[in-house]
Design a protein that fits this description.
The structure is a single chain. Helices cover 76% and strands 0% of the residues. It is mainly alpha-helical.
């Protein structure tokens, strides 16, 4: 027990160092900063991607196997998914990449395999991506490019020793692709300060190259990191920079909506942004946020309606396992047996702490207190600093009467109000 408690303390010290104070009266947002980005017309990026899709489809022809046209066509489908949220476009891209692999010469199959692996990663099919990448890596391939993607996949499935080994092989602090991965690794280790530092260096490289795609991606991701750290103003500013570069960037808009809700408790304005997004970017998780905000406002009926809308979209078979974690969180109260089944599946797909704490939550919902405690102590404690994982760990310890450990968790979770959100944060207060 002493060893377990030491792990808890170490993990929570890391989290405590990341958090900053949150004074809700200190407003960060200003509608004048982002209102111009909330346009009702079809989003520009989607229209451009649609034009690309039409162009390359015509070039390819109904029966053509022109490999030079297949790549751009698949890329257009991928952009259509990114800008619309329509899962069918992602599956269409998968089909085209598979066709390209079958018709391409051996020497150029590697590029299509990496593109297909990225598609699998987006679908959360990490093991499929690893199989494809390792197969390609063993043959004629761009070793460096493949190693970068393998690192991403190994990190996602908890193959941390393999990921760390690859990271050492890739080390080059002047290279953008290395910097964003050492940033991911630092975040995984609970070192947000270095994660942000590396991402700032990557952003400097993107800016020096005037590479628009890299500038957009880096600004949006560093905004999320600053949010995790508790520097809400920096997070907000980087979301605004993202929108200045791409006015229809959905992730950045959702980030601002979260700031409005979690930091400023302005659910009305946050809802304006989410409703704007839903006009052109219909993804299930927006309804989860709307359900959470409705619950925070005390409207359980409306919250349930939004939750049903989430499941209506998320249960589309084309999504596969993409929304398993969201479903588990939603089902623990209404269908814990189903939540447990999904959690077991998620652990099999991704045996990482972020999956195991959901398994423990489902076990706890079924009153399997001892099993939940075993899951937490063996697979979560000391292995992640993610606030939600720590909150669920605290709930498991509380159910097992381990109140001293619960007190340690609660103290360390107090700075995590922004990341958890005001509705979830009530569970911290109640510990």
């Amino acid at each position: 027990m002493k060893n377990i408690f030491a792990c808890i303390c170490f993990t929570l010290v890391l989290l405590g160092c990341n958090g900053k104070g949150d004074t809700d009266l200190d407003l960060v947002t200003n509608p004048e900063h982002y209102t111009s980005f909330l346009e009702a017309n079809p989003i520009k990026s989607y229209a451009e991607a649609l034009q690309e899709k039409v162009f390359w489809s015509k070039r390819l022809g109904a029966d053509s196997t022109g490999v030079g046209d297949l790549g751009p066509l698949a890329g257009a489908y991928s952009k259509l998914f990114e800008t619309s949220g329509d899962i069918q476009h992602l599956k269409d891209a998968e089909k085209v990449y598979k066709k390209a692999i079958t018709v391409a010469a051996i020497k150029i199959q590697d590029g299509y395999k990496r593109a297909l692996a990225k598609n699998y990663i987006t679908q959360h099919r990490f093991k499929d991506a690893i199989t494809l990448l390792e197969e390609s890596y063993a043959g004629i391939s761009n070793k460096h490019a493949t190693e970068l993607l393998l690192f991403d996949c190994y990190l996602e499935v908890g193959a941390y020793s393999k990921a760390e080994q690859l990271l050492k092989t890739l080390e080059n602090t002047k290279q953008y692709n290395y910097l964003i991965r050492i940033s991911k690794w630092s975040d995984h280790k609970g070192d947000l300060s270095n994660a942000i530092g590396y991402m700032e260096k990557a952003l400097a490289i993107a800016n020096s190259r005037e590479n628009l795609a890299l500038q957009i991606w880096t600004n949006s991701n560093i905004a999320a990191y600053y949010g995790h750290q508790g520097d809400i103003k920096a997070s907000y500013n980087h979301y605004l920079k993202t929108l200045a570069l791409q006015p229809d960037h959905a992730f950045a808009k959702k980030g601002i909506a979260w700031i409005l809700y979690s930091k400023e408790h302005n659910t009305a304005q946050a809802s304006v942004i989410i409703d704007h997004l839903l006009k052109n970017h219909k993804v299930p998780d927006y309804y989860l946020l709307k359900a959470e905000m409705a619950s925070y406002q005390g409207d359980s009926v409306l919250s349930e309606q939004y939750m049903q809308q989430f499941f209506t979209l998320a249960n589309n078979p084309l999504y596969g396992d993409m929304y398993n974690t969201h479903k588990i969180m939603a089902l623990v109260k209404t269908d814990p047996e189903k939540a447990l089944q999904l959690a077991q599946k998620e652990v099999a797909n991704r045996p990482i702490p972020q999956s195991y704490h959901l398994l423990a939550l489902a076990q706890l919902a079924l009153n399997q207190k001892q099993e939940a405690l075993g899951t937490i102590t063996n697979f979560v404690v000391g292995k992640t600093t993610q606030p939600m994982a720590l909150l669920h760990s605290a709930l498991v310890y509380k159910a097992n009467g381990m109140l001293e450990e619960v007190g340690v968790f609660k103290t360390a979770l107090l700075p995590a109000r922004f990341e958890l959100g005001p509705e979830t944060y009530t569970q911290v207060i109640a510990l």
